[in-house]
Amino acid sequence: MNSPVPGVVAAPLIGFVAIVTLGRWALLHQTVTDRLLNRALAWAGAGMLLLERGIAPQFGSLMHQLSMGCMLFAIMSAYGAATLWAGADPNGARVRQRRYDLIAAACSVVILIVGTPAREQGTLLGEAPDIWSAASALAFCLPAIACGRRMAQVLYRELVDANTTRRERLVYGALLTALAVGASSLPFSALLFGGWVHIEDPDLIRWAWPNCTVIVLTAALLAVPLFGVLATRAGWDRSRRCCRRLAPLWTDVTGAVPEIVLDPASTGRDEPEVRLIRMTVEIRDALLHLNRYAPHDLPIPAAAGPVQSYAMRIAYAIHAKAEGRGPVHAAPRTGTPESRDLDSELRQLLELARVWPAARAAVDAETNRPTPSWASAGWFRRLAMRA
């Protein structure tokens, strides 16, 4: 008895599903929805493994029926997650899931009972359009159709929601595609059982490939938030990257105006997103303060662009303040385009941070002054920003 999916293809796919499942179980297992999705992925991975009947051909029929049972438990776990997405009370999730698991267990028992003749003959349920195959198909397909219907309703609702982002629409669309792929074998099986078509499929490839495709595609989608968690822990997420790019500029301007630095302990939180907002606000306030110290006539090269010119103004202002000079402007001068939102302001500050080291070095050379003392001490601050 052959496996419907060749081992050279199945092995890496099963390994991928197993890695995603273990990773999510370790890092994304806090919420009820995550736990149900992880549970569904684990059952589905077990079902994929049992589909590899070439490992033990003499037990191929039993392995096939057990794989159907695993898929049922995966389907009912996904149904529980879809119920939560639909707005069900999370506090009752455990009780509801017990009922769903009882349905999966009952359908699995039915499949094992009606599959007794197939096990004795060494054939697969569904290989021949007989009454036993029809009964097992009903036991499997009814929960699958109920789950697919619930998930399709929830996904479509989110897909057409005006507040849904483009990235979320891509995910929901991919999940709907996975549902369509999983359902593709149902009409073909109905035609086969109805006698309208006839095809030799002793290994039930028509059933195995759609299931494997759905599982792998779902695992890939569920791996996206896992990669996000891993990137955050490794410091590769967007907020941490922005913090690192802003660190030299932040170190110099807050070293010149230390009174504007907020106390991190006052917020009680130091997540990367909060830290980035705090750095953005501190740099903005420091720049407004330092602009008052920039002299009117500065030896800025004519070839310097607006951002480079502004960076050199701030560098001159830092030197002027360090030498004890007073403000030369009564009111702050921005010197940079006005920002209407935090994202626009962050983009401008990142551009300023990009040219800042060169601008500071040019001004240091022009004024024959070493780098301010706080810049070297700021390495400790930069290390703190990476923590």
Counted by DSSP, the helix tally is 15
**Mind describing the biggest β-sheet?**
none
Oligomer: single chain
Residue runs with pLDDT of under 50 for 5 or more positions: 371-387
- The number of distinct β-strands equals 0
- Provide mean pLDDT, rounded: 82
Share of β-strand residues: under 5%
Write the layout of secondary structure elements.
Elements: H1 7-27, H2 32-51, H3 60-85, H4 93-114, H5 116-121, H6 131-160, H7 166-183, H8 185-193, H9 205-234, H10 238-256, H11 264-267, H12 272-290, H13 306-322, H14 342-367, H15 373-386
Task: Give structural notes.
This protein has helices at residues 7-27, 32-51, 60-85, 93-114, 116-121, 131-160, 166-183, 185-193, 205-234, 238-256, 264-267, 272-290, 306-322, 342-367, 373-386. With 387 residues, it is an all-alpha fold. The chain has two domains: 7-234, Up-down Bundle (Rhopdopsin 7-helix transmembrane proteins), CATH 1.20.1070; 238-386, no CATH class.
Short description:
This protein has 387 residues and is mostly helical. It is built from 15 helices and no strands.
